[in-house]
Design goal:
Blueprint: E1 6-7, E2 16-17, H1 24-29, E3 33-34, E4 40-45, E5 57-62, E6 69-74
Antiparallel strand pairs: 1-2, 3-4, 4-5, 5-6
Length: 86
Amino acid sequence: MAFEKTATVLGSTVKYQMNPNAKRYTLRDNGFVETNGGNFQLIRSLEATPQSKEGFKLKITVSKDLQTLKMSITNATGLKSVNIFK
């Protein structure tokens, strides 16, 4: 999956884009972690209860230039994209 100006998750019609005024420190303050490549990544569980190891994960990755992003909802292992809107 490549970085794009607008991103959406599988099965959704809602599109998201980066704010042109976004800053690195704001991403870090909101839970994003800087990867070895300089990108920023956020991984959050979408379970009903936090103790549950089953469920889905929301993955958002922002490019290091803060202009493009990619998003996906994956299975619990984080390897396969899932359509939660079915």
